Amino acid sequence: MVTPGPTLEIANLRVRYGHREVLKGISLEVQRNEVLGIIGPAQSGKTTLLRILNRTLDDVPGVVITGAVKVDGVDVHQVKDVFALRRKIGMVAPLPVGLPLSIFDNVAFAPRMAGIRDRGELAERVERCLRQATLWDEVKDRLHSLGTRLSGGQQQRLTIARALSHDPEILCLDEFSIAIDPVTTMRIENVLKNLRAQMTIILATNLVQQARRLADRTGFLLNGELVELDRTEVIFSDRPANRKTYDYVNGLFG
Amino acid sequence: MGKAARSIQNRPRWEVLTETAIEWLIRLCGISAILFVFGIFFFVFREGSGFLFHGFNVREFFGSTEWYPNSQSHVRYGALALIVGTASVTVLAMLIAVPFGIGAAIFISEFCGPRLKETLKITIELLAAIPSVVWGFIGLTVMNPLIINLFHTPIGLNVLNGGLILALMSVPIIVSIGEDALKAVPDSYREAALALGVTRWQLVHRVLLPAAKNGLLAAVLLGVGRGVGETMAVLMATGHAVQIPTSLMDSVRTLTATIVAELGEAPVHSDHYQVLFIIGVLLFSITFVVNLAADLIVRGIRSK
Amino acid sequence: MTSRKQLSEVMARTLFLLMTLLMVVPLLLIVGYLVYQAWPILSLDFLLTNPKHGMRAGGIWSPLLGTIYLVVISLAVAAPIGVLAAVFLNEYARDNWFTRIVNLAVVNLAGVPSIVHALFGLGAFVLFARLGKSILAASLTLAIMTLPVIIASTKEALAAVPKAFREACWNVGATRWQTIRHIVLPNSISGILTGVILQVSRAAGETAPIMFTGAVFFKAIQEGHLFAYGLFDQCMALSMHLFTISTQVPDVPKALPYGTAVVLVSSVLAVNALSIIIRLRLRTRRKW
Q: How confident is the model at residue B2 (pLDDT cuts 50, 70, 90)?
């Protein structure tokens, strides 16, 4: 059964760290199964925006959050089980991380922590997620070697496999290609194209062309403000609604 | 679509409850340190508080050298000689340990190859591990005859003996903190100085020491704290004379040694017993302040 | 470099080298001298026999066993509390004034002189808690003494685990404790162990804290029997024994106190060497 309504609703979100305001009143909606791209220069608030969703911002000292962030109609700050929320949302960080466990245990970690103990089910899940992340063929013969010994590109795909292992509804990627080679980047972009049928994808990136390739709609975030959010074709056309959007997309600053 | 997400939430209830219990235990242990510090102050203060508020003469305690707790006729608790005893041994120890300790820290930090560095650091760590009572024993059996022979004094248990032993005991901590302080000086200082063509001696003398002076100060403070609080080694090495020393060869008694020497014989809860606890409060307060100051400085270095 | 500069360089290096050696050489000389003086009586028999004839003969069995009891019990109390306290400080505590006070308390607890610990043990455990002078009271006193260092070294070991691992775990919905139990603790265990082991030598060597809380001048127990002491008994201890026979008992044959000192120092050095070995192995077997 599909829950009606947008999968993600943000209304007038303001975030500050102490006295520094990082997000200044963001409002947007994300529809189910769409791919939303978020572009903008460094320090514009992209990471903060993503981390609000799975509430990993809670631990930052001095953080103050106002406004509503609703996933499937429920405000994330009022949800009963924050860990269930985090399993609903898959997060891929900029720097690849392999946990100091075997490759198998890396991908089995989330299901195990959620209570799945059946060896067979875990094995099936691990294979499925590694295949989806296009890492299976490279590691299938060494599933018990350490995840930290993989290359950067492999570790980023491992992270994606980990993110998929808990069946997320929304997959967030925060500048995933920043530390990996172009070939792996392309592979992962193909992975995302294959995943879009199953989940909503939010892609924060500093590579504007990446948004152009993948996103249905794109939002331009500058200094904590959402300057423009529209269909990708519009953002990258000759006449986006805002002059600054045109300048940024065409490399005139940032 | 959401059905799969929901299927992955089946943590058994007992597991969640256990986890909550463990996290409460962790919080309890976390605040235990505060409880113990307060507890120490509370219980030590408690044992001495009776006399402290009824009959304890503060002026006599700090001003008089007449320490006669067991006198039949005229009991006096003048602790000045004991305080000077502690101070003299500690000062002598610092006068020796600080230059040598910082010298060693400089050698390890600036002049030494990695393998020698490792060996030296391990040796100094082992030096730090020698128990206080063994140092006291060494003061008794090694330093004692040595001092008698070298300086032709009748007894070798004195300020000099205690000071030397305490110096050897304090060196490791001074080297360790001193080395941290030197490591915290950015390499750019060294590179700039060497580019200007200075010798390593000038580099140490004019650049590193001034830059690291906070950390070196902290090292000295920690050494002082250690020296004031040291018990067994000074008990065994300084003799048992309650007097203000006029030379290095005089025997003295420190505050710490007094407690050890007299607590066994003082009847529980007697005035004498309580005064010994009051000395304990004094020691606690001194080391508290000294260590607090040193820690604030050290935290400043390590966070840079 | 000019020859004057070269000379200055060599002189500086030599000066500092000498200063270092002056600190290091005494260690070797001391250990050597102690062993030399103790040589006549060092034997297995020395370890397994009780002191006899008013401690002018015999061995060190009862002090040795007493020290072992004190060390084991005090660490059994201090290690769990210390490790959990460090877990709190490094993994749970937020960066506020309260945490700063807790950290301050740990540092100050570390600086308390051993005689003040003795007074505390006497006031709190022997008298207030009515444990009387006993192995239990003495062990608890030692536990509080070793606690702050265990907390500090465990914190260091936990902090060495990269933050990125924790964040990766939280991102997939693991709880804080799950992250600690499955990733943080297993990867810091060597560091934690090192810290705890170092406190073994500290607990074994301290005299003042046990002097008034449970250690005695003399107590005869069954030789060679591992369970000869009870929790509420008083005991002898190596450190106190050394103090006693070198200052309180006249006419003790020279080799006896040296022998006691050698056993004490060599156990302490052996334990420290063990912790150093663990630390070196840790460096080579890192998982990241």
A: very low
On chain B, the residues whose CB falls within 8 A of the CB of C268 are 129-131
Q: Which residues pair with A64 in a beta bridge?
A: A16
| pLDDT tens digits, one per residue of C173-222 | 999 999 999 999 999 998 899 889 989 988 999 999 999 999 888 887 87
Classify the C-alpha dihedral C101-C106-C107-C113 as positive or negative.
positive
**Distance (Å, whole) CA A180 – CA A156:** 8
Neighbours of chain A (3+ CB pairs under 8 A): B, C
- Inter-chain touch B111–C17, beta carbons under 8 Å: yes
Pick the closest to residue B295 from A183, C44, C106 (CA basis): C106
Residues in C touching B133 (Cβ below 8 Å) = 205, 207, 239-240, 242-243, 264
Is A244 within the bounds of a domain?
Answer: no
- pLDDT at res. B3: 45
Please name the member of C95, C167, C183 whose beta carbon is closest to the beta carbon of A56: C167
Banded model confidence at residue A138, pLDDT cuts 50, 70, 90: very high
Let me know: does B131 contact B236? Beta carbons within 8 Å. no
Instruction: Give Cα separations from C59 to B304, C32, C231, C241, C258 (angstroms).
Output: 53, 21, 23, 11, 12
What would the pLDDT profile of B66-75 be if each residue is shown by its tens digit? 888 888 788 8
- Model pTM score: 0.89
Chain B positions touching C246 (Cβ under 8 A) are 137, 140-141, 236
* Whether pLDDT at B4 is above 50: no
Question: How far, in Å, CA of B178 to CA of B223, rounded?
Answer: 11
- What fold characterizes domain B76-302? MetI-like fold (1.10.3720)
Range of the domain at A63: 8-228
C-alpha gyration radius of chain A: 18
- How far does the CA of residue A1 sit from the closest CA of chain B (Å)? 7
Whether A203 is covered by a domain: the verdict is yes
Domain count across chain A? 1
Instruction: Give the residue from chain B lying closest to A198, CA to CA.
Output: B1
CATH T-level fold of C58-284? MetI-like fold (1.10.3720)
Cβ atoms of B250 and B92 within 8 Å: the answer is no
Q: Is residue A249 part of a domain?
A: no
Write out residues 131-190 of B within 8 Å (CB-CB) of C: 131-134, 136-138, 140-142, 168, 171, 175
Q: Tell me the range of A139-143, C103-107, C252-256 where mean pLDDT is highest.
A: A139-143
Which among C144, C142, C147 has a CA at the least distance from the CA of C66? C142
CB A159 within 8 A of CB A184: no
| Residue of chain A whose alpha carbon sits nearest to that of C178 | A113
For residue A191, what is the domain's CATH number? 3.40.50.300
